[in-house]
Amino acid sequence: MAVFTPLTETQVASFLERFDVGALRALEGVPSGTENSTFFVTTDRDRFVLTLFEQGESDELPFFVALLDYLAEHRLPVPGPVHDRDGVALQQLAERPALLFPRLPGRHPEAPTLAQCHALGDALGRMHKVSQRFEGQRPNPRDLHWLASAQHKVMSYLAADDQRLMGDEIDAYQVAFGDASPLPQGAIHGDLFRDNTLFDGDRLGGIIDFYNGCTGDLLFDLAIVVNDWASDADGHLDRERYTALLAAYQARRPLTATERELWPMMLRMTALRYWLSRLLVVYVDPPAHDLTPKDPGEYRRLLLTRLAHGAPPLPAPVSST
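Structure tokens predicted for Homoserine kinase:
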């Protein structure tokens, strides 16, 4: 179970007294996650999610709180953190930073339907449109500069062909993005895989786990989503899911000419981003807890597929009604 800091009912009941959320009725550890301790909390008034932050820089947490508050204020399907009676969201519990969230409805989709892809594309397009006005700043910790520096940490663990593949790809990204006009930027999720969404049937209940959130290229965020949501087991893009997601997205935020030109390259770069980050976990920086690292080979295969087949044409933007 991914609860790294156990809590007692007495601890949580006392913690809840800081908020106007009712009295504790049930406490349940959540057996998922790789970094933080998560609990389902039920009171006599509602259901909540309590997160204890086990890793990372605690001084970055105010950025995440401000971003979630901002997105919730703009009616995006995100869990805005619960503020205490003094208006403070970020707390301490069991000597860990802690946040309390409303529990959103739904489950993680394993095989996204076309309707789910459309709903996610619509929500992401709305989020990116408003996030460009968010004033908070946190540099993207996994951008092209990180790729260029971090690759050297894994090269000795790779076969010669993979060393050339990674090095050649990063060189190609530096040329393509270095010569291009600046891409639209804003606050991005940074890790919007299927398991960071909740669906009740085909209705999007919420987008969760913004702890990779940062300021970056909106196209970077979109490419991460498409690589996960629209790829089959071999890394090939499913045309119907691809079109459903991107058409809904562009109805909210049409891509610029530069974004459309760089789209195939961004799909490749975000595939390499996860290949490299997973290699680092396996060989260089294993998780602090006893968890099984994700397979780096999945995103190596996906990268090779993007190189071999490119990207399907982007759907034409259609104005939202």
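The longest helix spans residues 257-283.
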